[in-house]
């Protein structure tokens, strides 16, 4: 649906500055996601860190003409002569208000889903259950925030027959806003957990806040057996129907009479509003899935879906995979595997992800897509939209798989390189498949097409041991540290040592996308790798080698300079190349006594030397705390800081341009916020470990492997080299394909350390070998092929470093290169 800009101005109650012509179909809040500039309205949002107004000139250059702004300097009307500006007092509120007006155009059932867990699964399953008979519009992925909800609601269109939207809140007052946008006619409360509890005084307050979404609904589905929810719903004044479900109380709307689990499925017998009992089966056996299916059942029955229909559809429910994974593939390819439901909105999000990740030159961006199922949209229009999205988001090669895509192949005529196959098998046996090389491939297939076969063929044969890295967690950690910093303070992200073991290239892509000011690596080669992979961010080299200067200049990598010897050599090399004004970072030694200029003795000579030449200029000056992680060094830290200031101020005094001062590392950002100065350097904290408490607060990586073989070993036998693993009673011993060559420290052997098998501790028995280790799984329910966690969410890496009497930095950076890194976002 589109709106004229005049109509939007009148809905928002504001005037238009500039042109009054044109119409808007897309709303944009993140300039990086632009796709259809001509029909896009950009909302310049101001957050603590960023200001959307800064992107107006870039967006204007890319063809955007419609802007919602909070300020309008008079020169803009000249500067952007073809633009239309809507000036409002808050862009965020304008976005919310516009979405609310759009919502008012629809007189259809709209389901609002909230709760601490299960929102997304319930939303997706409702979609799976309803979309065969109705046209459903729903929130893409988990767009449930103050910005995500208006963007979701905007997707409602003329064809929509049912809307399903998720609402998520983290503090009081937010739900009211979301209610006014979603205006649900039916409510679903899934469960209450303790996520985001910090902003509420009690669980009851949180429950009541969530219920605010439902003040005007006709009916509310909720778990009656949860006492707190029941009492809040009971005392909550609303006129709609209360559709509680219970396994205990027969008087509720939906009584669950029986739940029978078998090995792979669960059959649930229920009585709906005192009618005759019936049952259905789902292909899941975990309690969360069972609860979520019951919630969906209640809602579908209320909407009038027939019991027989539900009985037929429930067994077909598919797991909701939220993951989008990045893996190294064969023949120079990278795979982006998005297992999330295949529909156009999630396709767009995945395409945006691919498009926004920089890449080295020459690699094609390829989309392999199956037929989009469960869409009630007219196929022709759907595939035309798919093709135009793919094109706009930079897809250069298209592989369509499925009969429907073959029928609509003409829609893809604008993509030069394209081919179509009825099945994955057909594609696998084609030349097109054999000739794939050096491409970034986005795989997006509906489950029934069996894209696993394709992934298996394309991925490098993975050693069973992998390090899984969660890119969202990196972003969360980045934002957490940013929230401790003043908005104007710049940030260096330390991605030396292959990003503390996580893999510097993919981490750098994510950080660049989130606009950090600098990336820092140890040596020039690491910087070159980043550049070759498309990283354009400022890059700092902490330990430049004398032999690498030419590389630094060629790839625009800014070295740290810590000694006169290095300084002289660098100046000489730069002069030889005819370079002027190359930025460098001056390190001052304030007590670490590792590298750096002496802030008292060396500084005059340093200034003198820098002033005498013009090949390089000091971009920043910095020093490093010896002990910001411990209070016991606070006095020493103060001394260090004073020394730094003395030297740095003197340096700055000698130059007219601004020189950035920085000293805080992760622990410093937290412990010495008043010492942030111009910039901070974030290391370990980015990876989810708090150096001050030595605790993992948000793990980003998990080292995992699988059981190769299990055997019983009788009492008295020994396990492993040198007969070290003496077995004192009959035991079950499993072998796992990870050894000290993978970075599993040998000192964890002989029962000093353990890993987790199905959540249970399994000690390392005997000496750890080069490629294999043996663990004691006696009494643990497990089989060959089961997953083993070496460290991760359930076994923090700090547990390992404590046992080894070292620091988590060492354990993380020891994970060897042969362990494949798999990146995902959820
Ligand atoms: C590694 C490093 C950091 C980051 O330290 P963390 O303790 O990991 O935050 C900061 N500054 C310099 C100079 C470093 O070498």
TrEMBL record:
CDD domains referenced in this protein's UniProt entry, alphabetically: PLPDE_III_AR (cd00430)
Active site: 496, 721
Pathway as given in its UniProt record: Amino-acid biosynthesis; D-alanine biosynthesis; D-alanine from L-alanine: step 1/1
Keyword Methyltransferase recorded: no
EC number(s) stated in the UniProt entry for this protein: 5.1.1.1
Domain Alanine racemase C-terminal: 700-824
Residues annotated with N6-(pyridoxal phosphate)lysine modification: 496
Protein name as it appears in the record: Alanine racemase
């Amino acid at each position: 649906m589109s709106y004229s800009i005049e109509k939007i101005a009148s809905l928002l109650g504001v005037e238009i500055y500039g042109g009054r012509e044109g119409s808007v179909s897309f709303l944009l809040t993140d300039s990086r996601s632009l796709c259809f500039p001509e029909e896009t309205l950009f909302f310049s949002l101001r957050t603590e860190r960023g200001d959307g107004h800064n992107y107006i000139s870039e967006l204007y250059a890319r063809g955007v003409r419609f802007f919602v702004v909070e300020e309008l300097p008079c020169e803009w009307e000249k500067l952007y002569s073809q633009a239309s500006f809507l000036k409002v007092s808050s862009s965020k509120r304008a976005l919310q208000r516009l979405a609310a007006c759009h919502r008012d155009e629809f007189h259809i059932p709209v389901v609002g889903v909230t709760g601490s867990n299960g929102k997304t699964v319930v939303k997706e399953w409702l979609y799976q259950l309803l979309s065969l008979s109705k046209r459903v519009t729903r929130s893409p992925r988990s767009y449930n925030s103050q910005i995500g909800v208006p963007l979701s609601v905007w997707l409602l269109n003329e064809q929509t027959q049912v809307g399903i939207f998720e609402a998520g809140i983290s503090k009081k007052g937010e739900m009211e806003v979301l209610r006014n946008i979603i205006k649900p006619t039916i409510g679903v409360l899934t469960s209450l957990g303790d996520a985001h509890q910090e902003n509420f005084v009690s669980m009851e307050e949180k429950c009541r806040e969530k219920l605010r979404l439902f003040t005007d609904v006709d009916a509310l589905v909720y778990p009656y057996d949860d006492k707190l929810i029941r009492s809040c719903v009971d005392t909550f004044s609303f006129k709609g129907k209360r559709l509680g479900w219970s396994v205990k109380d027969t008087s509720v709307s939906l009584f669950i009479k029986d739940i029978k689990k078998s090995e792979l499925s669960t059959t649930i017998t229920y009585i709906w509003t005192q009618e005759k009992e019936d049952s259905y089966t789902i292909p899941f056996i975990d309690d969360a899935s069972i609860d979520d299916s019951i919630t969906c059942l209640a809602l579908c029955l209320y909407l009038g879906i027939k019991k027989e229909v539900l009985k037929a559809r429930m067994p077909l429910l598919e797991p909701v995979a939220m993951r989008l994974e990045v893996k190294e593939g064969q023949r120079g390819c990278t795979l982006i595997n998005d297992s999330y439901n295949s529909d156009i909105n999630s396709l767009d999000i995945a395409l945006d992800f691919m498009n926004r990740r920089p890449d080295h030159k020459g690699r094609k961006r390829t989309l392999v897509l199956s037929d989009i199922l469960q869409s009630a949209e007219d196929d022709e229009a759907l595939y035309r939209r798919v093709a135009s999205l793919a094109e706009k988001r930079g897809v250069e090669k298209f592989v369509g798989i499925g009969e429907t895509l073959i029928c609509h192949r003409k829609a893809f005529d604008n993509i030069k390189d394209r081919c179509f196959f009825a099945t994955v098998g057909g594609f696998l046996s084609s030349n097109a498949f054999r000739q794939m090389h050096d491409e970034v491939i986005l795989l997006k297939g509906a489950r029934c097409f069996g894209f696993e076969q394709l992934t298996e063929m394309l991925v490098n044969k993975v050693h069973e041991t992998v390090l899984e890295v969660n890119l969202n967690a990196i972003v969360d950690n980045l934002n957490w540290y940013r929230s401790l910093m003043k908005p104007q303070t710049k940030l260096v992200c330390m991605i030396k040592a292959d990003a503390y073991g996580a893999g510097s290239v993919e981490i750098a892509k994510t950080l660049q996308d989130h606009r950090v000011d600098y990336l820092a690596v140890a040596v020039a080669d690491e910087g070159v790798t980043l550049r070759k992979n498309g990283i354009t961010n400022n890059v700092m080299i902490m330990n430049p080698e004398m032999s690498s200067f030419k590389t630094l200049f060629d790839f625009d990598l800014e070295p740290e300079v810590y000694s006169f010897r290095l300084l002289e050599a660098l100046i000489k090399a730069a002069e030889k190349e005819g370079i002027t004004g190359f930025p460098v970072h001056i390190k001052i030694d304030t007590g670490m006594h590792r590298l750096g200029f002496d802030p008292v003795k060396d500084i005059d000579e340093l200034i003198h030397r820098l002033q005498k030449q013009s090949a390089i200029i000091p971009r920043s000056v910095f020093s490093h705390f010896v002990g910001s992680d411990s209070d016991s060094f606070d006095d020493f830290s103060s001394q260090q800081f004073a020394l730094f200031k003395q030297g740095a101020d003197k340096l700055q005094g000698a130059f007219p341009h601004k020189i950035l001062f920085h000293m805080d590392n992760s622990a410093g950002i937290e412990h010495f916020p008043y010492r942030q100065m111009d910039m901070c350097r974030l290391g370990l904290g980015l990876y989810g470990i708090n150096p001050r408490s030595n605790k993992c607060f948000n793990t980003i990586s998990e080292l995992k492997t699988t059981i190769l073989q299990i055997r019983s070993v009788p009492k008295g036998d020994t396990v492993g080299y040198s007969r070290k693993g003496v077995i004192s009673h009959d035991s079950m011993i499993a072998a796992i394909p990870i050894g000290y060559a993978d970075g599993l420290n040998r000192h964890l052997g002989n029962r000093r350390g353990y890993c987790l098998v199905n959540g249970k501790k399994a000690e390392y028995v005997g000496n750890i070998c080069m490629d294999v280790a043996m663990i004691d799984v006696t009494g643990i329910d497990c089989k060959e092929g089961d997953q083993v966690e070496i460290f991760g969410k359930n076994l923090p890496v700090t547990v390992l470093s404590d046992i080894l009497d070292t620091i988590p930095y060492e354990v993380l950076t020891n994970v060897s290169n042969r362990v494949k890194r798999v990146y995902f976002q959820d």
